[in-house]
Amino acid sequence: MTTHKYILCVFVFAAFTACAGEGFSVEKTERGVTVKLNGELFTDYLIGEENKPYLWPVIGPTGKAMTRAYPVKKIDGEQHDHPHHRSIYFGHEVANGSDTWHEKTTFLENPKLTHRLAKLGAIKHLEFKEVSATTDKAVIVASNAYMGFDGKKSFEDLRRLTFRVDGEARIIDYDIDFIATDGPLTFDDRKDAGFSVRVPTSMAVDTKLGGRIINSEGHTDAAAWGKRAKWCDYYGPVDGETLGIAILNHPSSFRYPTPWHVRTYGLFTANPFGVRSLDRNAEDGKITIPPGERIVLRHRIIFHKGDEKAAGIAAAFEKYAKEEFPAAKK
């Protein structure tokens, strides 16, 4: 090989190696899908573990884990309560009569609750319809079957996760279509339901290390529970830094603005299915979706530095609210 050809080959190889580590990449694994940013882990979308898919771990803008590890991993100093709070997940206590909010461990840990195992259902992964990545974003589209406590398929969901970066913030858009594929679909009015994040223990308000909750209407900490709001932010210390998680509720989402089942001990849930269960003065929010139709939840999660003001969450919501989505197909 001549000298100039050798130099050219070395240059091309070096350029390819540098580019290969930049931007987003995805990889299917036995456990689900791994999403990386610049060659480093962003998160894993995990399937086939317990009774629902979930994201864990989730790495924030400064390299710190932004959700609690338990029950996937036990870490000293973390809270070890509510094992069904698996990092980032969806579940509902009574959907067509079955419970996908809780899991076996929840009831096995308490002998007084073992009778509730009889109503436990599961969200079973069916297929990945898309797993892709470019420099700017990664996308996972997955379909799931909701299996009733009787072992029969009850309905399906189609979820689209889009991973991006905006400045110093890391973003996950998490959209879920619930489709009445197997007859009518009924969601009961329940407190324990919705799209959830379990925040790091150090961030929880109750640990009294500086954690705070604030929503778009100005309600803070315990006062934010049960209130409707366009967005809600949970921030606090994580390994010596003030970091935060904001969940934005898009105007096209079911029952926008959503009520928030957000707790000072660390649960952070957007729950449009909890109406009277979160506000005793409201009417029952039970809903039945006719066969073949659907409802859609749309949320944007922003993992950010500082509090909600430093991260510009109010402005981020205004930008998000202007984004348009195609009408849900029936």
For the secondary structure, the number of strands is 18
Report the order of strands and helices: HEEEEEHEEEEEEEEEEEEEH
Rg over CA atoms:
21 Å
**Beta-strand content estimate:** 35-45%
Keywords:
330 residues; mainly beta; eight-stranded antiparallel beta sheet; 10% helix; globular
What does this structure look like?
By secondary structure, this protein is mainly beta. The protein has one domain (3-321). The chain has three helices and 18 strands. The chain has helices at residues 3-20, 104-108, 313-321; strands at 24-28, 32-37, 40-46, 54-58, 88-92, 122-133, 138-147, 153-166, 169-179, 185-187, 193-198, 212-215, 231-238, 241-249, 260-262, 267-270, 287-289, 294-305. The strands form four sheets. Strands 6-7-8-9-18-14-13-12 form an eight-stranded antiparallel β-sheet, covered by helices on one side. It has a four-stranded antiparallel β-sheet with strand order 1-2-3-4, with no helix packed on it. The chain is globular, with a radius of gyration of 21 Å. Residues 1-20 have low confidence and may be disordered.
